[in-house]
Amino acid sequence: MSDILHIVGGGMAGSEAAWQAAHMGIDVVIHEMRPKVETFAHKTGNLGEMVCSNSFRSDDSEQNAVGLLHWEMRAANGLIMSCADQNRLPAGGALAVDRDPFAETVTARLMAHPRISVSYEEISTLPDDGNWIFATGPLTSAGLGTAIAAETGAEALAFFDAIAPIVYFDSIDMSRAWMQSRYDKGETEAERTAYLNCPMDRDQYEAFIDALLAADKTEFHEGETATYFDGCLPIEVMAERGRETLRHGPMKPVGLTNPHQPDVKAHAVVQLRRDNALGTLYNIVGFQTKMKYGAQTEVLRMIPGLENASFARLGGIHRNTFLNSPTLLDGQMRLKSRPNVRFAGQITGVEGYVESAAMGLLAGRMAAGEILGHPVATPPGTTASGALITHISGGAEAKTFQPMNVNFGLFPPVQGLKGGRRGRKDRYQAYTDRAKADWLGWLEQTALDVA
Fold first, then answer.
1. Domain that holds residue 257
2. What separation in angstroms does the CA of 225 have from each of 139, 159, 160, 428?
3. Are residues 236 and 136 in the same domain?
4. Which of 118-122, 328-332, 414-418, 435-439 is the most confident on average?
5. Counting runs of H as helices and runs of E as strands, what totals does the chain give?
6. Domain check: are 26 and 144 in the same one?
């Protein structure tokens, strides 16, 4: 019994943790409450279900920190990246997937592994013994949330996370919209035409902003506060920060030419990205929203090309729970007050699918190493994975701790390189070159440790 690793939560982090530990020779039980206990955002009982965007963001491992994280996970035999590559969709320089087949692939791979089993039940307490990883994500159940708060002696922090609407492609007016990736980015024609674009002139944009600001929004319950993660702001919150905010964010018109009116420069452009392999569903990029459903349809149909849009899913908002990890977790992702319990994924204060899966990868390996009697060291802070775990386990300021995407600002500087925008390309290349060498060294060392 003591040699079994129990993982609570079958999302990105829990799935990756199970895969890594099982490949190190550990028997794993995944405890997943779905479909018996549902959440606001999940639609199936599949492991690895994507509940927001279908994008893993940039796949550039030389100039982008999240692309580097992709590279590290692939090098570590990562389940999530392997399944993402298997179900990839054209998305310019990004890695986007067909969400349902992706989750089905994750589920099938885990269920087929001889050392992994799944128990469909809700865990609402922190066990006193055994080896546990809690990877319950942003939608941690109320019972477990209460148990965590009781154990830590402090309320879990929380912010609100919004999801974007999905549109049926055949309801989009292609006489007004067109297919093009920004700056024609991509090596193939499919990549260069991966996004669907809807242009707005100045008057259309201003009317859209007016409607957005006036629309009915979801109200918070008494005692809740709206602290948003800046990487996932609702569009109406961005609009409230200034009328030009959206035009310089998800609606920026740069790098695009409208073939219907090639001589007319759009004032703003709304982009949609394919959400499934069939190309029948498109999600509105960056359009997370807390507008009420009736208001959403009215406001979004003001977008040229979407006047008659039909929606497969409207946007929504949910509470996102996370720990004050710098005060609660050690460098092995263990709860300091109860070291038989580890946490992984978004609940630790990382943001994004890839970051969550990466923390699952580390937690799974560290837990397996401990069970085997060969502790797995924390990866160097010069790597993307190491920079994230350093941030959540003490690198961040506890008083102001907020969820964080991976970014080069978390990396130790490379000495002797020029700062500022002009030196950025060389600086980022140096970060990624150093990270790849250090990550491969860590993989080799930890493989020897558990051999």
1. 163-318
2. 16, 8, 8, 37
3. no
4. 435-439
5. 13, 17
6. yes
Domain co-membership, 284 together with 408: no
- Report the binding-site residues: 9-14
Tally the residues of the chain.
451
DSSP state of 155: P
Assign residue 383 the CATH number of its domain: 3.50.50.60
Residue 245 and residue 310 in one domain: yes
Q: pLDDT of 96-131, one tens digit each?
A: 999 999 999 999 999 999 999 999 998 989 999 999
pTM here is 0.80
9 and 149 co-located in one domain:
yes
List residues forming the annotated binding site for FAD: 9-14
Q: Are residues 250 and 270 in the same domain?
A: yes
Q: How far apart are the first and last CA of the chain?
A: 22
Cα–Cα distance for residue pair 10/107, rounded to 1 Å = 9
DSSP assignment string, 317-382: EEEEEE--HHHHB-TTSEETTEEEEEE-GGGGTB-SHHHHHHHHHHHHHHHHHHHHT-PPPPPPTT
One domain, residues 259 and 188: yes
Name which of 287, 338, 341, 277 is nearest 314 in CA terms: 287
